[in-house]
Amino acid sequence: MNDYMITTDNNADLPEDFYKNHEVGCTYLSYTLEGKEYTEGNFLPVEEFYNKMRAGSMPTTSQVNPESARALFEPYLKDGRDILHIAFSSGLSGTFNSCRIAAEELMQEYPGRRVLVLDSLSASLGQGLLVYLAQERKERGGSIEDVANWVETHKRNIVHLFTVDDLDHLYRGGRVSRTTAFLGGMLNIKPILHVDDAGKLIPIGKVRGRKKSLLELADLMDRKIGSYAKSCNMIFISHGDCREEAEFLARKIKQKYQITTELINDVGAVIGAHSGPGTMALFFVGDVR
What we know:
This protein is an alpha/beta fold and about 290 residues long.
């Protein structure tokens, strides 16, 4: 029986066409900027959003609540479908818990239907890569149990490597100290971060200069990919309104690996509100995060 839907949220940073073309459901976290709330249907164009941040605007974000999760799930249940939901990392947001609450309530109201809510422990196109691979397995005929088990087994193989251009945004989010942000700006220090096995964003290094930070992401891939090196044919890259640099990073990686599937997309506003313009993130399947 293959009558189920895979769903996720917009922090997966997948293109909207992917959701439509593959019939993947999506719920949306929102943000507030300059006193106005933005949500599905009225999000600012990404370039405009980041330009406002460059000009000094400071957005805030809101997680998915149980009511929003219910609004996503219930129509599928009414249609007789089960749901496999792959949620934004519980280490970064309460969205996973909101979806879990909604699922428990709905399964009581729709006996015999299943809503499996999985914590991706991932973010941005790392979450997106997990959804992409899960949907591939579904489209090859995988049952909801098979795909859920695969996600749970392999989600910590989705490697996330980040750098940012301006430490002030990480300071506002509590990721670095005020002193680190100030000195980093003065000395042109760029942090290197990853999402760890608990789904939290953690600094793992620093380099001086933007170009070196991009090259460091590519070098770290060599160290983390491990036994997947020969079979690696897919990279996802998300960026905070700096596509040319994302394409530069992709070219460097394709000099080393036989990449046949490459997705470059924007870091959406909800994550971008915390990481800022100039964020660069690389995602691939590897041995260790």
